[in-house]
Amino acid sequence: MKDYLDELEAEAIYILREVAGQFDRPALLFSGGKDSICLVHLALKAFRPGKFPFPLVHVDTGHNFQEALDFRDSLAAELGEQLIVRNVVDTIAKHNLQDAKGKFPSRNGLQTHTLLDVIEEFEFDVCIGGARRDEEKARAKERVFSVRDEFGQWDPKLQRPELWSIYNGKIDKGENVRVFPISNWTELDVWNYIKRENLQLPEIYFTHERECVVTEQGQLMANNQFLNLEETDQVVTKKVRYRTVGDMTCTAAVESEAFTFDDIIAEISNAKISERGATRMDDRISEAAMEDRKKGGYF
Amino acid sequence: MDLLRFFTAGNVDDGKSTLIGRLLYDSESISTDILETLTRQSKTTGENTTIDLALLTDGLRAEREQGITIDVAYKYFSTDKRKFIIADTPGHAQYTRNMFTGASTAQLAIILVDARNGITDQTKRHSIISATLGIPQVLLCINKMDLMAYSEDRFNEIVSEYQTFSELIGLNKVDFIPTSALAGDNVVHSSEKLSWYKGLPLLEYLETVKVDEGNLKEEARFQVQYVIRPQTEALHDYRGYAGSVLSGNFHVGDEVTILPSGVQTRISKIESNLKEVKTAGKNQPVVIHLEDDLDISRGNTIVPKNALPQTEKSVEATICWMDNGAFNSGQKFLLQQNSFRTKAVIKEIHSKIDIHSFQDLESDGNLQLNELAKVSIKIAEALSFDSFKNLPKSGAFILINENTNQTVAAGVI
User: For the whole model, what pTM was predicted?
Assistant: First the structure.
């Protein structure tokens, strides 16, 4: 196998089939973002003409882009696969939690509660996610099969050895594994794969005009009803696109004219700023923000 | 473009993380925002270190606090010629099992040596692990040459010592490169200070090194991961065996044997990438259909009728013990080979392998963390296997502690 995309694809399909073979109640975390769209495509290659051996699960923070939600719903419907959506707003009400505050109120921490609740509700023993090791340095440390305790917590100092392509997903009841089939893909690999397989994506990945608020760090945030803006905040209209599709309250757009897959691939190849650096406010809080979220049960 | 997976190993403080940082930094693979963060974190007190490149891979809080690597970090970069996946593995003896994790998927090992210290116990341990794992190519990177005044004699001295050792342990192919990762000599750019060295600098070496892809005529092996049975009206009789080809090639029409049952049949159809294909090759994910309706489940092996592997209820293997707790005789395990799992016990520990001499030492019946040993394992259901040296995917397994669910050993047959 000479082409690296074939190699990465084969690895991911192998991992998906291991999940199906080893676990009783798997779920695939699907947000309508590019990484989880790739996962769904890989699942087609792994399991068709059969049905997926898992439902698609989305934790909706209530701050998602409508384009991504519409895409999520239409893809699930088109494939005839089950989609389970659970809302962070309901979790906030149920557990009497404090909603996110501030100018850019991020429910990133709160969605962990919803995720753990949905895992408990359906007794999922494994959740497949689209996280990649090139995204962030705590993720760079995580195994493909990442075993979590009853509270969903990751213990980075006690990870199981993971040898060759032999994956040990054996757990006790109540525990949970997070599996990352595209661990070894980079942002550029994902785009090259999307291009090769000609995958459909939500429109916000491509250039469009948008009203944006400029943050103190110079990032462009879509002007939306969830932001608590002050009068001094500057609103501008720019040609932008999204490199990642997270919450509207913590995901920044990048200025871009990229209209085709090739434009985007050229843009990323020349980008001087990393994917999360360009688009995520949540990782700027501290150097160990991701590690801490994972220890708390985040995917 | 092809992909090279390599890992870096060596002693603590030999400069592994710095070397990787240097590779990424000088090949302009580090984004500006990550550089900013690094610059903020780096101690600027050092004379010539404005940026601590090791911080790039030490991704955990505990690692940054202690300045050590605890677990494997994976890093990705590419040049015009190749894509690379680096596993930066820990140097501390205590974390050797994490090093094993990073090494097991690699095609090439970079073992770092501090030019001042030469070959150490840890160098030997990592070399023996590389030999045990059958890593096709080893590069001994003799680093910190700046601290030995870039001495050619010192380089040659270490090379000759290592050559003797690598022959003893049976390493396949070994190359040598002198570097200073900290100063950037001979990592991405060649250095005038090492003008006596006529070989390639590290990056160019990595871009061009040919990694042995094993035997082209190897026997075909396939293991069932998952049975696809849609059970819909339209696909009422569809029954496909999903898995990846472990080695060799399969063709439609091949006469095959199912193991462990020994039943014979013929391949009626192969699907790959949602299309029918005539043949399937190594590592390719496929769905195989058979002419006869048989009882075949996950973990069963499909092989050509005339090229059978061994199928036994006991195996002789070399294992690396990876659990914090020592081995207790009589302990029950699950042996997992790809998708096949069965109960297992270690019947006998024949010998341990001394990391200094590579000699077999008499067994004391114990196994401690990171020890290598030759053992006999008895298993409940027959295992179909080949020697790891011939067909790595059919000759490797892990042992899982039934009680704690931990992966406690890695083994090769």
Answer: 0.93
